[in-house]
Amino acid sequence: MDNDCIVIGAGVVGAAIARELSRYDLKVAVLEKASDVCEGTSKANSGIVHAGFDAKPGTLKALYNVKGSLMMEQLSRELDFDYKRNGSLVLAFAPEDMDKLNELKDRGIKNGVKDIKILTGDEVKTMEPALSDDVYAALYAPTGGIVCPFGLTLALAENACVNGVSFVFSSEVENIEKTEDGFVVKTGTGEYHARTVINAAGVYADAIHNMVCEDKINITARKGEYCLYDKKVGNLVSSTIFRVPGAMGKGILVTPTVHGNLLIGPTAEDTDDKENVATTAEGIASVIKGGAVSLKSVPGKSVITSFAGLRAHSDKGDFIIGRTSVKGFYDAAGIESPGLSAAPAIGEAIAGMVSEDLGAGLKENFIATRKGIPNMAHADDETRKELIKQDERFATVVCRCELVTEGEIVNAITRPLGATTLDGVKRRTRAGMGRCQSGFCSPTVMGILARELDKPVTEITKHGKGSEFVTDHK
Amino acid sequence: MHKQIVIIGGGPAGLAAAVAAKDSGIDDIVVIERASSPGGILMQCIHNGFGLHTFKEELTGPEYAERFIRKAEERNIEILLSTFAIDITADKTVTCMSRDKGIFTIEADAIILAMGCRERPRGALNTPGYRPAGIYSAGTAQKLVNLEGKMPGSEVVILGSGDIGLIMARRMTLEGAKVKAVAEIMPYSGGLKRNIVQCLDDFSIPLLLSTTVVDIAGKDRVESVTLAKVDEKLNPIPGTEEVVKCDTLLLSCGLLPENELSQQMGVTLSPVTGGPVVDESLETSIEGVFAAGNVLHVHDLVDYVSEEASNAGAKAAEYVKGLSGKAGKGTGYKVETGNGVRYTVPTIIHPEKVSDLTTIRFRVGNVYKNPEICVYIGDRCVIRRKKMICAPGEMEQVVLKKDDIATLKDGETVKVLLENI
Fold first, then answer.
1. What is the CATH code for A84-145+220-311?
2. Is A305 helix (H, G, I), strand (E, B) or coil?
């Protein structure tokens, strides 16, 4: 048997599971169909660490959300990713909304969310002057936070990698066979054997589950569209602003991102195509309309990009986590919101079950911390000088909007699980994430990737094979 | 380090400003340039048509730049290459970063902002669809083709008819690509007439006015775009959609003055141009800080960039020599826009500081046939000039005489407007 565990999917949940499994004396591989970690749902979401008042008490969503949210701060220090506890507000616009607001508050208290309270309209408007005059009251949860979803996923994956987990990219799982002592997982790039398989396949978790289990599950892709705004308006609000929720989710939220942009979204629309991350004119219009309910005015001119992500919505309405009807096969399925918040706790729980079932002990040499890529934009001058002294490439600015240097980009490419694509560099360093959206830096980043990976620039891609940028002149 | 004049940007504006400042008697000048050679965006503009006004001949971009680079060299003007200005404070301290020097600061007596502009990206347009490879701003594609020697695609649709888009329609065609259409959301082109003739008409590339991209298909690489006609309010008209197969979408949808550094130091910006608010001396809201070229407002012709920047250089030199500004100046008179005129540069005039002639540059907001360009000082019409056509894509200018400006009385303004429209 090659592996003790195969994790399918290198999103935030797969990465969290891999990282927690790497604490144990186990041989672990992660299979990912895309060319990098964090290429699916994990790369296109709200980046919110929910306080935990939303999920119904007793559900897995509530359990893992509250746990994960409590783990996030320490994890951000151990693994060096951007996380901020900025607090969250759920707005009510009329006296009729108060029942719902009180229900959320009671849920929060039952779920163990700390310091949660209801504020009057005036209190809310003093706290957040950019909010609509129509705000009647709000539920305030100071423990709500924001996180960089790429930063979190990459940190977990890199740390798993450093602790011996192997990652196999561009390997879509085609079939899983149960054998006497484990599983054979067939992918486009080969067969992998393992005693256990953990399903963290996002919107495809139903397909993976149904390859193995008789009791079928169904995951619907629920599309959410977002607009991202310039850092110039990033401080329009300081908390994450929700509204009293509806049937399809929490509605359109307005939030600062951990990097100082303003984010408005998501919409919620079910789609049959699990690759459908296209934005639509209607979607963008409803994002703007939704933002305009919470805000006095939406800074329309300052939009720098729009994008869409897919939530993995289970028919059961709750996370599907843990052991299944088939021994050795575990699910982490139906992970929609608050999945990002819950991921660290899901990772811990699954790793606990798997290690128990396999009788694995903890490793002695587990490395619990990870240092991120140096960040010239936010470093003080002393740190900047020190970095340039060590490597003068930290003095060459490649992305002018986000102030990302060649030193940072080379680091992103050459570190464990390094970037191999333009999107990979972008998510690791923010090069190309600013207001010019890579117009200025993309040719340079392509050149650096080609040089560091020793490939012709014609083979450099946006996000894997088929997304090449340039050809040679004919 | 201390310098009398620090110029941010070594493109056409920065070089012309440096040369003029030097010729006005200031020796202690440094130009900060982030690229490894001076010349700015001109270095990738290998087509001709530059310098008709300045040199009375048709030069390519690099040739035009070369003229000014040589002038700077002849004058021993210091240009710090591969050096990035990362911060400027209101007291005119510039923080820079380079491989040779690490992080260092320069205290300046005067600063000339000459950072140029950038292209509006797809995201700012909120164009729906997928986000595959194959979507480039026209300038990025120009860089790839002309400087990197690579082809960004083979079947191309161009959104926006700005000048770079038009130039790239021809360039891509000459390099063997098929440019299927240039779509322009407005009922008129944003580019120069001569570029429409020489870059589209001569190559039979259709210019589709009142047309925009409403969808982009292709998960990995662009596979097609959907074009649709728009109504007067620029909203797509249902039923007019047409899918055009292509692997590349180039965007030429406007240029944005690049004023992040100006904002950091607290310079007041115009919401119309996106550039600093300046007076007749091209001095910004911060004393001793001047601006010229595309950082101030987007130009069509580099000749006018050079001319404007020369003026800024001379005025900065005067400022440093204590000839103007430092003694304090009056609030000045407003330059207002009227009928059809979108903005002017400058927007403030100090009669005590004007030279013999003061150029006011402006753009109109729509296409006007046979208008009269009029300038009023108070209620006195001092300029009335007939034009066959005025269009948003072509910058206009009027030149005011010192004597006329001297007649301004308290409470009066200078007004630039179109009549007979």
1. 3.30.9.10
2. strand
Mean pLDDT (chain B) is 95
Contact B99 A395 (CB under 8 A): yes
Q: Do A303 and B151 touch (CB under 8 A)?
A: no
CB atoms within 10 A of CB A185: 26
Option in B121, B217, B260 nearest A439 (CB)? B121
Which tokens hold the place of A294?
A: 């919470």
CATH class of this structure's domain A381-459: mainly alpha
Every domain of chain B and the residues it spans: 1-119+255-329, 121-253, 330-421
Q: Which of B139, B147, B150 sits opposite A457 (nearest CB)?
A: B150
Measured between alpha carbons, how far is residue B388 from residues A269, A435, A457 in Å?
52, 38, 49
Closest approach of A418 to chain B, Cα-based (Å): 20
Calculate mean pLDDT across residues B140-158: 97
Q: What is the CATH architecture of B121-253?
A: 3-Layer(bba) Sandwich (3.50)
Residue A459: closest C-alpha in chain B: B150
Q: In what order do the strands lie in the sheet with B333-337?
A: B348-349, B333-337, B414-419, B372-377, B380-386
**A473 labelled catalytic:** no
Report domain B1-119+255-329's class. alpha beta
| Percent above pLDDT 70 for chain B | 98
- Would the CATH topology of B1-119+255-329 be identical to that of B121-253? yes
**C-alpha distance from A397 to closest chain B C-alpha (Å):** 7
pLDDT interval class at B123 (50, 70, 90): confident
CB pairs under 8 A between A and B: 136
pLDDT band at B190 (very low <50, low <70, confident <90, very high): confident
Q: What is the per-residue pLDDT across B293-327, written as a single tens digit (0 to 9) for each?
A: 999 999 999 999 999 999 999 999 999 998 665 54
- State what percent of residues in chain A have pLDDT above 90: 96
The ipTM (two decimal places) reads 0.94
B263 vs A contacts (CB less than 8 Å): 232
Q: Per-domain residue ranges for chain A?
A: 84-145+220-311, 381-459
Q: How far is B276 from chain A (nearest CA, A)?
A: 16
Cβ B99–A381 below 8 Å, yes or no? no
Is B97 in Cβ contact with A461 (below 8 Å)? no
Which of A275, A283, A437 lies closest to B122 in CB terms? A437
In CATH, the number for domain B330-421 is 2.60.40
Residue B324: the pLDDT is: 63
Neighbours of B149 (CB within 10 A): 11
Estimate to the nearest angstrom the gap between the alpha carbon of A332 and the chain centroid: 15
Number of C-beta neighbours around residue B293 at 10 A: 33
